Amino acid sequence: MHSTPAAPDQSAAANGIDVASFVPKTCLAYLRDAQNDDGGWGFTQGLESRVEPTAWCVLALHEFSEGPGVNEAAARGFGYLERTQLPDGSWPATPGQEQGSWTTAPACWALLAHREQAHERLDRGLNWLLQTTPADASRWWRFVRRLAARRSVSSQSDQLYGWSWTQGTASWVEPTAYALIVLCRGPEKLLSNDARKRISIAQKLLLDRMCPGGGWNCGNPMVYGVAGEPQVVPTVWALLALRNSGTNEYRKSLDWLEANRGNVQSLASLALTKIGLDALGRSDPNLDNSLAASFRDKDISVVNVPAIAWTALAMSSKRNWLKLTMPGETS
Q1: Mind listing the pLDDT tens digit for each residue in 78-104?
Q2: Residue 149, exposed/middle/buried by CB under 10 A (0-12, 13-18, 19+)?
């Protein structure tokens, strides 16, 4: 059992909100109530269970394992992930699909919290990630990309690839970041020379996809000569995936996130901003109060479930879920 950690300055009140009790009384209580009978979670309370929100909820509940019903809810969520894993080791994006998807990475991330019980399932999921390549890894795709580059459609390298949202499609920033984060935290035995090469190529892809002024967006960083606008969500995940890179591009993107923290509006983006800045050494104690206060005028029953899970994770001072072990390093 772990005691519920107190984030910086949680003894203060945020516009009448007791920040110290905010996670157990608001976030975790909501997640327990929103859990479906099958043990999973939908994107909002009452919707059909999906792998993605379930993975984030399992991580959040495991991070704060003390409290009424928390361990039980986490165990039921873990059971849902066990039952929905496909025979090839992957997880589907939606119930009933027989093809693996990007949700394999967050599912594996959640299984890392239950490593002792789930090592066989975890190994199969991570192996699926290592063996799956997107469409832009093929020679035909690279040929098409070279033709497009001649029209100045995009300045991206056609030699790099990461992971896609669904099989048979192109690489994208967020699924690539998720896969990198979980693979670099996985068992060392899985990291063969080919696996390390795969990881290196994907890391280079993220750097190649960075927007000119720093940060990342959901699409291309530059199209028809126009710079893309960075967004918080893909920027935080990419930074966490590249946290040990030490490149100028990485530092520029971290500077962008820090400089724009006061402009963040949505709950999900605010939670991820705090997660990123805390984990990467740029903590802003004011974000604790801002995050808690943002619930004041919201109807939490319609708030996106992953956003509530991220909010709980953002409030953790332990950050066990983010203690990554990179290849060649010790925990």
Answers
A1: 999 999 999 999 999 999 999 999 999
A2: middle
Structure tokens at 255: 């500077």
CA distance 294 to 312: 13
Q: What burial class does residue 147 get, using C-beta atoms within 10 Å of its C-beta: 0-12 exposed, 13-18 middle, 19+ buried?
A: exposed
Identify the three-state secondary structure at position 146.
helix
CB contact at 8 A, 109 and 182: yes
Which DSSP string corresponds to 203-225?
A: HHHHHHT--TTS-B-SS-SEETT
Tokens of 219: 């699409």
C-alpha–C-alpha distance, residues 321 and 273, integer Å: 16
Give the CA dihedral 244, 199, 110, 304, nearest 10 degrees.
80
Kindly report the pTM of this predicted structure.
0.87
- Report which secondary-structure segment, H or E, holds 310: helix 305-314
184 near 327, Cβ under 8 Å? yes
The residue extents of the domains of the chain are 13-321
pLDDT in tens, 292-327: 888 765 677 668 999 999 999 999 888 889 884 433
- Please provide the CATH number assigned to the domain covering 13-321: 1.50.10.20
